[in-house]
Amino acid sequence: MSQGALYANARVRTMVPRALIRHLKLDIDILDPAQEEERFARDFPWKKVPAFAGKNFKLTEAMAINYYLINLSSDEKFKQQMLGATLEEQAQVIRWESLANSDLIMQMAEAFFPLIGNVPYNKRVVDAALVKVEQIVSLFEERLTHYTFLASENLSLADLVCCAIFTRGFDYLFGKQWRAEHPAIVRWFNHVRSTDIMKEEYKDFKFIDKQVEPPKTESKKPKKAEKKADKPAEKPAAEAPQQEKKPKHPLEALGRSTFVLDEWKRKYSNEDTRPVALPWFWEHYNPEEYSLWKVGYKYNDELTMTFMSNNLVGGFFNRLSASTKYMFGCLVVYGENNNNGIVGAVMVRGQDHVPAFDVAPDWESYEYTKLDPTKEEDKEFVNNMWAWDKPVVVNGESKEIADGKVLK
């Protein structure tokens, strides 16, 4: 006789309980609530999955169901590994489960629901959610940079649950560039999803190349325009050349510059910065074609760990990808944990910083001050920001550079 029934569907919260039932070979039926609609509604009027119905026992909430299923196992070693062998490990399992099952999945859903059309698209809401997602995943990247697993030295329930939650990010948000910037998370995710417990859940999984695009809105042509058109079939052909002439980026209208940006980027990447690259830059730099800007984060008092500040910069640069062929620069993180800031120097095509930066949703979190390369102090600031070999002076106090990112 069956020990009960688990109602589960395609939601990521149902992946782990379903995987545990299969792995532990528990005598529990896995039911699709859509196919057992009447029974499901009778047992669970709220219709929330996953849901477990046993003999005279009902249970909701994924964390509780996972805990219950693991304890049905007769393998004490497995139970200790999954739930934690010590009080400290048990607390860490709950900690990571809770973070993924609440903050992470909610912020990811806030970002991808509008992108896939589940709710009306609002760019400001999506952009704000993406910033919060990056702040949360930076905690995972830091932990997994130094450890193989989240809660202990072994695979635990925390890894299974967090892996399942991250799946939605990899389905809709985390493209190639994001994955390149978060190697520890990607390594861990690939490891966990290939384990005997989880591999059945990922047999059809594929990574995306880039984040899902916002839905396109089509405007209807006014009826008057339709009446005026003598030959409607010819109108699209007449409009086509105008669409082709429209520049893809506002800075494209400035045309080709005499200063070859790609050549400078190669020089910076391949040569010693102070003795070779910077002298070459100042020799070839054309201030009429490119402007230099001091870029500083507005909310340094809110920054905590230096690695999180650096991840914040990485996310900002990632969202500037549409403008990178018109820009170059560095932002550094100076100071120490719970007392740090972000500042740097960026060169952009043209004399206005806005067209280059406003492609990033969080660009207004930074302040921009135009630099004058004829002033020795401004020139030296650029040198220091691009060389990273001298402390940053803040209010007369020297702050060592802890980390940084290059935009190129």
TrEMBL record:
Gene Ontology biological-process entries: positive regulation of transcription by RNA polymerase II; regulation of translational termination
GST C-terminal domain sequence ranges: 86-212
MF (Gene Ontology): calcium ion binding; core promoter sequence-specific DNA binding; DNA-binding transcription factor activity; guanyl-nucleotide exchange factor activity; phospholipid binding; translation elongation factor activity
Annotated SMART domains: EF1G
Record-given protein name: Elongation factor 1-gamma 1
GO cellular component, one term: cytoplasm
Pfam families per record: EF1G (PF00647), GST_C (PF00043), GST_N (PF02798)
